[in-house]
Amino acid sequence: MQRRFYEELSNARATAAKNSVSLSETTYRKLLSDVLKAKKTAKKEPRDYWLLNRYDVMVIGNKSKLIYPVREGVNAIRFYVPDSELFDVLHEAHLAVGHGGRDRTLKELSPKYKNITRYDIELYLQICEPCQKKQKGAKKGALASPISVHVVR
């Protein structure tokens, strides 16, 4: 299931726009190092301000994670997820909502993660075998057979 998800994701990412929210592992690492460098730089460039407005770094244990900067009055920490961890995050959230649909899974993920899109969730749901089994069968037409009408004169 995981292999199939990443194959489909790879196909989708190949046609994704340059400004897409998806983060490959290399892009994620580069952003981490760029944000750390921008925080330490005394004379900031416009890109440094752009980076610091959109990204921050949080160290958990000995691992650095990319997060959305915490604003005043907002206590929630929203993480950025690299594509390499996307399946695990989606799988965990989808099971947490009891194989709920797209909207329930999105509602579970939105407060915790910044860059998970509806499309990513829909892709996962297409691959989730229990969800595919419980999908309703093809709907039949409104009329099973034609109705004959007799006109009496």
UniProtKB/TrEMBL annotation:
Domain of life: Eukaryota
Gene3D superfamilies the record matches: 1.10.340.70
Pfam families referenced in this protein's UniProt entry, alphabetically: Integrase_H2C2
InterPro entries, alphabetized: Integrase_H2C2
Record-annotated Integrase zinc-binding domain positions: 81-135
Name of the molecule in the record: Integrase zinc-binding domain-containing protein
Organism placement in taxonomy: Eukaryota, Metazoa, Ecdysozoa, Nematoda, Enoplea
